[in-house]
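Issue 218. Parser rejects a valid record. Input:
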Amino acid sequence: MSGSELVKFLETIGYRVTRTRGSHVRLVSDDGQATTIPIHAHRQLPKGLLHSIIHELKMTRTDFFKMWACYEKT
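Output the parser choked on:
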């Protein structure tokens, strides 16, 4: 998935963009959890970076990818 796809997905599950600086977007949830997503010309996020972002969001990979699968269907 690309960074822009991830930002759109996170917005649907309750995160909001608080700032954009260069090619990075900062998102924060209502409970204060935050993460930064790089947006680089529709390039795919590296697997390790994606897993690091999921860890920052305090989610398991299984839960994240279940929600992603439901999001893709809509």
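Fixed in the parser; the record now loads. The chain has a mean pLDDT of 93.
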